[in-house]
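ARCHIVE CARD
CATEGORY: sequence design from structure
SOURCE FIELD: tokenized fold
FIELD CONTENT:
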């Protein structure tokens, strides 16, 4: 059970957060000026007034005013950032021992999901770095837990869009409080050692795939005991990230993919999510008139990670050289399930039973049933899950897949070793 949110939001902030928000405020002010100038010029053009040298900008004294606003904003932002840069080490020394609150981490995860690619590109302190985590702390290869504290059965749990590793943990009230999430259950019943991934879900899925592959190579090389079994449990976008990581790990001839035994996908949009495609058409509708066209900038706050969910991109080639915000056909390269790895698919649906409408549109509220099960109208794109390796959670939404006791029971059933003859 997540602790109740504090009534004082300042409690959850850190010095780096303040610096990051100051940078965002500067960018937002400059962006608002661009939008305002675009609308202003659209009106001027309708009256026959000339514009500036750059399309969408005004000319003459009006253009000079907007240019001054952007210049002053940039200078002010640089000054504030320089001040926070000097104060940040002093302020952080007093809070170094304080772990981030669940409320803070949830807000950062959502922010990174929406605009994490921009945060990373501008080196904003709010950008989430990728880390493998054990018992709530980032793994340090130089200080791994001793062999007696871990097992050779490693379970990697990967969260989805706008989420973080803490949301895998479900706490039930009591004395003491008990953890009831999938990771805790599989550790208690099957002897797994859960490792959690935290990452910036706003970056391209393939970028996260490259980085995860490199980190898993380090995990395999430094794990304190021999790894007998390596299983991945991935929710939503996390399933696309691990598919990308396996692809690039094998392409780079790394060692860790050979250690991978099983992958369980929970509500993964293998063939995309229609909500992103619907959002994509907002760009087109707003862009049809010169007066609304400047507001297309607002819809483009969708991160690269979100646009990758349009069709389920897992490779660099799927998005490189393309305008991510223009409607296009599904041109991604087909990537089958990794050979030699036992793969399972859990699909959620808010419906009580299967139907054509529920399968294609309703699904778990975010991901259609067919997409979660890897099924596609084009046989070349379909992912082949064995019949016994597919399971549907009825009356279950996308987020509930993380905490459903029925899902936990199915995971235990799939991952329990078969008795030896």
């Amino acid at each position: 059970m997540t602790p109740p949110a504090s009534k004082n939001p300042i409690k959850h902030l850190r010095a780096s957060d303040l610096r990051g928000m100051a940078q965002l405020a500067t960018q937002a002010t400059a962006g608002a000026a661009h939008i305002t100038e675009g609308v202003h010029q659209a009106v001027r053009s309708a009256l026959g007034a000339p514009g500036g040298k750059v399309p969408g900008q005004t000319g003459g004294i009006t253009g000079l005013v907007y240019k001054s606003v952007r210049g002053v904003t940039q200078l002010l932002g640089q000054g504030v950032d320089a001040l926070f840069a000097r104060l940040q080490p002093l302020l952080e020394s007093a809070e170094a021992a304080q772990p981030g609150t669940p409320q803070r981490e949830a807000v950062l995860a959502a922010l990174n999901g929406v605009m994490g690619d921009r945060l990373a590109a501008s080196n904003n302190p709010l950008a989430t770095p990728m880390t493998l985590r054990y018992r709530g702390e980032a793994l340090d290869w130089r200080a791994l837990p001793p062999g007696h504290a871990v097992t050779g059965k490693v379970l990697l749990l990967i969260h989805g869009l706008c989420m973080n590793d803490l949301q895998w943990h479900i706490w039930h009230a009591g004395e003491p409080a008990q953890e009831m999430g999938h990771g805790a259950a599989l550790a208690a019943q099957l002897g797994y050692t859960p490792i959690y991934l935290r990452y910036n879900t706003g970056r391209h899925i393939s970028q996260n795939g490259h980085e995860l592959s490199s980190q898993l190579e380090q995990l395999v090389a430094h794990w304190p005991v021999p790894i007998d079994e390596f299983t991945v449990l991935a929710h939503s976008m996390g399933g696309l990230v691990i598919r990308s990581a396996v692809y690039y790990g094998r392409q780079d001839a790394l060692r860790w993919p050979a250690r991978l035994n099983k992958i369980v996908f929970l509500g993964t949009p293998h063939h995309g999510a229609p909500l992103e495609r619907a959002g994509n058409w907002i760009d087109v509708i707003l862009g049809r008139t010169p007066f609304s066209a400047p507001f297309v900038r607002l819809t483009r706050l969708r991160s690269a990670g979100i646009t990758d969910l349009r069709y389920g991109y897992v490779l660099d080639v799927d998005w490189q050289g393309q305008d991510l915000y223009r409607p296009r056909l599904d041109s991604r390269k087909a990537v089958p399930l990794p050979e030699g790895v036992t793969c399972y698919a859990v699909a959620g649906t808010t419906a009580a039973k299967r139907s054509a409408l529920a399968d294609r549109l309703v699904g778990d509220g975010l991901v259609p049933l067919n997409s979660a099960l890897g099924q596609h109208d084009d046989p070349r794109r379909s992912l082949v899950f064995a019949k016994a390796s597919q399971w549907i959670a009825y009356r279950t939404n996308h987020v509930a897949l993380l905490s459903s006791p029925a899902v936990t029971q199915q995971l235990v059933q799939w991952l329990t070793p078969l008795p030896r003859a």
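CARD ANNOTATION: The chain is about 45% helix and 10% strand. The first helix runs from residue 15 to 46.
SHELF: design records, drawer C
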